[in-house]
Design a protein that fits this description.
Layout: E1 11-16, H1 28-31, H2 35-52, H3 59-64, H4 76-94, E2 101-104, H5 108-115, H6 121-135, E3 142-147, H7 151-160, E4 167-173, E5 176-182, H8 183-191, E6 199-201, H9 214-223, E7 236-238, E8 243-244, H10 251-260, E9 263-264, H11 265-272, E10 277-281, H12 287-295, E11 300-302
Parallel strand pairs: 1-2, 1-10, 2-7, 4-9, 10-11
Antiparallel strand pairs: 3-5, 3-6, 4-5, 7-8
Helix pairs in contact: 2-4, 2-6, 4-5, 4-6, 5-6, 6-9, 9-10
Length: 326
């Protein structure tokens, strides 16, 4: 015996993204990969469609079409993003990739709690619908902007812009933040950009993580009463609550907090990650994986919908997931 200790087994963290990704055609290849993935997708989409009623019309076409639709009906982007996360969780765990903890970013906390067993798929669907209903009438009145700068640099940028209702809503990585606020104030921020950090407006129809959204939070809370909280099967860490949830927590109220309180993804990644951690993104694209690599350069990442589908066979379940560099 060499006397050398075996390397620790990799810790696996599922990352559930929030809004802003483009869900169109996201499950097209996966649906055609094999009969198991097709059956899983059909089952989950069926549950979501039954629970959402008329609000879910067109969901299947958005996710499974080969060609991107030009327009998605209101509420469908949120339902589609939710469906993608639930489908990936179901297929990854079936392939032997079980999470030690799930981290949901913003809107992604709904799917994270479904993946952890707190809500079933229909209740999660109703929570998405409740959030959409709560924001109805606020579309176009606020916006969110990605700022390629640190949190301190972004706060300095807002201070230089003068008094406004803009806030740092999310800290995604050491050099990436999100600003939230009224549409007019966002427009002024772009006008004053000059030689400052790069700004990118996100594909989100309203502001979120803003203290001025108390009315939205109250509406959301009232509509969530129809969902039943169950015990956690997997730990869930909240970048909004900045802690791991417990069964004694009111997780309906925790979701409501996501409307008005900021997200600190950097702290969440540092708390839950190390060089022996593999992060798997349950969404379209690899935006959160890039945030992981910027925050924890030695961590391993997988964005299942951005490359080959070998993970479906479980070939990655006995060894750390390979990093997908972009």
């Amino acid at each position: 015996m060499s006397g050398q200790a075996a390397p620790p087994a990799p810790r696996t963290v599922f990352l559930v993204p929030g809004q802003g990704g483009d869900p169109r055609c996201a499950l097209h290849d996966l649906y055609r990969a094999d009969s198991t993935s097709r059956a899983t997708i059909d089952d989950i989409l069926g549950e979501i469609e039954r629970a959402s009623g008329d609000a879910g019309q067109g969901l299947r076409e958005v996710l499974l079409s080969e060609v991107k639709l030009r327009v998605m009906a209101p509420g469908i982007p949120q339902l589609a993003s939710y469906a993608i996360s639930v489908v990936l969780d179901r297929l990854l765990t079936a392939a032997g990739l079980h999470p030690d903890v799930i981290v949901g970013q913003s809107f992604g906390e709904i799917a994270a709690l479904v993946c952890a067993g707190v809500f079933d798929v229909p209740d999660g669907t109703r929570a998405v619908g409740a959030l959409n209903a709560a924001f109805r009438g606020f579309e176009g009145r606020g916006a969110m902007v990605l700022v390629l700068a640190s949190a301190s640099e972004t706060r300095a940028l807002l201070a230089e812009a003068g008094p406004s209702d803009l806030v740092v809503a999310c800290v995604n990585s050491p050099k990436q933040t999100i600003v939230s606020g009224p549409t007019e104030a966002i427009a002024t921020l772009f006008e004053r950009q000059g030689d400052g950090p790069r700004l990118v407006r996100l594909a989100v129809p309203y502001a979120s993580h803003h203290p001025g959204l108390v009315v939205v939070a109250d509406r959301f809370r009232a509509n969530l009463c129809q969902t039943r909280q169950r015990p956690l099967r997997v730990p869930v860490y909240s970048p909004v609550g900045r802690r791991t949830y417990a069964d004694t927590d009111d997780l309906h109220e925790a979701l409501v907090d996501c409307v008005t309180k900021p997200v600190d993804l950097v702290e969440a990644l540092q708390h839950n990650g190390s060089q022996h951690t593999q992060f798997i993104e349950l969404g379209v694209g690899d935006g959160l994986c890039r945030c992981v690599r910027a925050t924890l350069p030695s961590a391993r990442t997988l964005a299942p919908l951005t490359g080959d589908l070998s993970w479906l066979t479980g070939t990655t379940s006995k060894s750390p997931v390979s990093v997908r560099q972009r």
